[in-house]
Every structure is written in structure tokens, then in C-alpha cells.
Amino acid sequence: MTLWAPLRSIIAAASLAVLSGCAAITAVSDAATPLDVYELRAPGGIAPSGGRVSARDVIVEIPTTSGALATDRIMIRPNALQAQYLPDVRWSEPTPVMIQTLMLRSIEATGAVRYVGRKPLGVSGDFAIVTEVIDFQADVVPGTETANVQIALLVRIVRERDASIIASRRFSAIATAATTETSVVIDAFSTASDQVFDAFAGWVRSTL
After folding, report:
1. By the 8 A CB rule, do 104 and 41 touch?
2. What's the average model confidence in pLDDT over 157-170?
3. DSSP states of 114-178 as a string?
4. Consecutive H or E run containing 113
5. Among the listed ranges 7-16, 106-115, 162-171, which one has the minimum average pLDDT value?
6. What residue range is the signal peptide (predicted)?
7. Which class for 60: exposed (0-12), middle (13-18), buried (19 or more C-beta within 10 A)?
8. Cα separation of 88 and 105, whole Å?
9. Whole-model pTM?
10. How many degrees, rounded to 5, is the angle at CA 105 between CA 103 and CA 108?
11. Contact at 8 Å (CB) between 196 and 170?
């Protein structure tokens, strides 16, 4: 009996090593699996200014947000205190960068300013768009198979010359996804995004 004890220990250790190796291989395999990519576009119906172009340069800074949203994964919350991500999919850019891109394209569509970009043409621009992302996720409705996509941004227009805030506004929209199936949730993101960035473009146009 005592002669077999060391052998059993050796076999057990070897089995654990094999299982650990399998787990590591699975993790590497999962990490290497390509994810489907989704992209949100600026609203197609943004009204152009129709007047004289403002001789002003506008810089859109990368929005700030919580760590859970500072990723290219698409967030879905099963409850208010838990953050998860839709499996096997991602955004085309990290969420803050994608929102910056949507802002740029929305302002460009108005044709209201001389220049809009991520960086100034010279030393500095005339105005900066400074944004905090409050919500950009799908929230599962308790006891149902539906989810509410919520987008909320706090946006400030800052005059670069003296760093004064000349305007501030919160933009938000909610769109319901009938199921938590990926394509349905993405459609809801697109609907909410169109509402937010259409309102944002009109606000920037009228403010500047």
C-alpha cells in the first residue's frame, strides 16, 4: 500500500499539469478568435447650416469615461452593478475614440465651421469640445429578454483663448432592443446614437 502512494501522487500531479496545459491552450485559442466588428455612423439626416461658414477651428478631444467603457468591447449590463460584454463582437474603435469620430463627422456634416479635427492646425484651435461619457451600454430589463440601450454624454464647449466654458449640455437617448441578440442590440445602439448626435450637431451649429 505504501509503495503505491508515491505513484498515485505522481499520476495526480501529471494529470493536473495536463489539465492546466489544456486550460492555457483554450485561453490562448479564445484570445486568438477573431471578433465580429461593428461600427456606428454619424446620422445621415443632419441639416447643413445653409449660411456663411464660421471662420473658427474646433478641436474634438477624446472623451473621458469609466474604465469599463474604455474598451472596444460592447457593454451589456445584466443588472445595475454588473458590467459584461456581448460575446464574440467588438466596436471598430475603443468607445471613447468612436464617440470622438462620431462627433467629428456630425460637426463636419453641418458645414458650419471652417475646420474640425482631433488636433489643431496651428498651436491651438478656437474652441474645444470636451466630453464625458456617462452611459454607452445596453441594460437588460429585469425579468424580460429585452434591453434598453442608453447613451448619455455631458458635453462642454471651451474657448481655448482663456479656457472658459461658453456652453454645456447633456445629451441622452434610450432605444429598446426587443431581444439581447447581438444584431438587435446593435440596431438599438444605432437608433440611440442617431438621436444623440443629431441633437449634438444642431447644438454646436447654433452655439458657434
Report:
1. no
2. 96
3. EEEESS-SSS--SEEEEEEEEEEEEEEPTTSS-EEEEEEEEEEEEETTTTEEEEEEEEEEEEEES
4. strand 113-117
5. 7-16
6. 1-23
7. buried
8. 27
9. 0.82
10. 105
11. no
The single residue listed with the C-alpha cell 449660411 is: 51
CA atoms within 13 A on the CB side of 5: 3
Residue 199 has pLDDT above 70, yes or no: yes
CA distance 78 to 122: 46
Question: For the chain, what is the mean pLDDT?
Answer: 86
Residue 8, φ and ψ in degrees, nearest 5: -60, -40
Looking at domain 37-207, what is its CATH homologous superfamily? ABC-type transport auxiliary lipoprotein component (3.40.50.10610)
CA-CA distance, 6 to 13, in Å (whole number)? Answer: 11
Q: How far apart are CA 187 and CA 174, in angstroms?
A: 12
Whether the per-residue pLDDT at 6 is higher than 50: the answer is no
pLDDT at 20 exceeding the cut of 60: no
β partners of residue 169? 155
* Distance from C-alpha of 60 to C-alpha of 158, rounded to nearest angstrom: 10
